[in-house]
Design a protein that fits this description.
2,3-Dihydroxybiphenyl 1,2-Dioxygenase, domain 1; 2 domains; 27% strand; binds zinc ion
Length: 146
């Protein structure tokens, strides 16, 4: 299990507003706040944002370069994916892969993909329906999205 993830962000206030919105929807609580950082936690995991130092802020992030491509969070269920998708749209956010939403990750993969203010890709994915039902027969998963 991951302990924590720390992201350097180009504009701490802008990113903190976005991540606070998202993480609270997912049940996280604010953990720490200091001049150059913020953190939120849930179930022993915490996410940290740190202001990128002036010497490095000019080098922008791109997920196709070596390094982090995206961060994926597990939703409670498909309804939560839908709720976050709607909330994202209401705040003017853009859903990535809109033409294939919510199955951009594959037929049995129910998720929403979007970007943080630095264009770090974020995914919120529902557990498979078989897992939600406490079953693992695979049949229902294969039927999804067809
Ligand atoms: Zn993913």
């Amino acid at each position: 299990m991951l302990s924590h993830v720390e992201l350097c962000v180009s504009d701490l206030d802008r990113s903190a507003e976005f991540w606070d919105w998202l993480l609270r929807l997912l049940g996280y609580q604010a953990l720490q706040s200091w001049a150059h950082g913020r953190s939120w936690q849930l179930n022993g995991f915490y996410l940290v944002l740190v202001q990128t130092a002036d010497a490095h802020v000019g080098a922008s992030y791109h997920r196709k370069r070596t390094g982090l491509n995206h961060l994926a969070f597990t939703a409670h269920n498909r309804d939560q994916v839908d709720e976050v998708t709607q909330a994202l749209r209401e705040r003017g956010g853009r859903v990535l892969y809109e033409d294939r939403h919510p199955h951009a990750g594959g037929p049995g993969h129910y998720a929403v993909f979007f970007e943080d203010p630095d264009r770090i890709k974020v995914e919120l994915v529902a557990p498979s329906e078989a897992a939600e039902d406490g079953r693992d027969d695979g049949v229902k998963v294969q039927r999804q999205g067809r």
